[in-house]
Design goal:
Elements (H helix, E strand, L loop, with lengths): L1 H12 L18 H14 L8 H10 L1 H16 L5 H7 L12
């Protein structure tokens, strides 16, 4: 389960430009590898569906409120899915409405 989570989280964190190294080779303070480990620790210690929103609150500091909410929702969906390959997941998942509008 942890390997599946890591694979998905690592891939999804790439969409956030502010987590990537800049062109001069410097790493931002809140880089993707740190955040990957942070999210993994959250998964081990906090129920991501907890009604108090604790996981979202802890992740919001890094990704913002809406991004944190969507990220955790998608992570949970991936972990509950029968898929082991992200490409199979990508082929099967369907998004309604404007879930990813403006994500690029």
């Amino acid at each position: 389960m942890q390997a599946r989570a890591r694979k998905w989280i690592r891939r999804e964190l790439r969409i956030f430009e502010f987590l990537q190294p800049d062109f001069e080779g410097e790493r931002p303070v809140r880089n993707a590898e740190f955040l990957l480990e942070y999210v993994m620790a959250l998964l081990r210690n906090v129920d991501i569906k907890d009604s108090t929103g604790k996981a979202e609150s802890l992740l919001r500091e890094f990704l913002g409120r809406e991004n944190a909410r969507l990220f955790l929702h998608e992570l949970e969906a991936w972990l509950r899915s029968p898929f082991h390959d992200i490409l199979d997941w990508d082929d099967a998942v369907q998004y309604g409405g404007n879930a990813w509008e403006g994500a690029e």
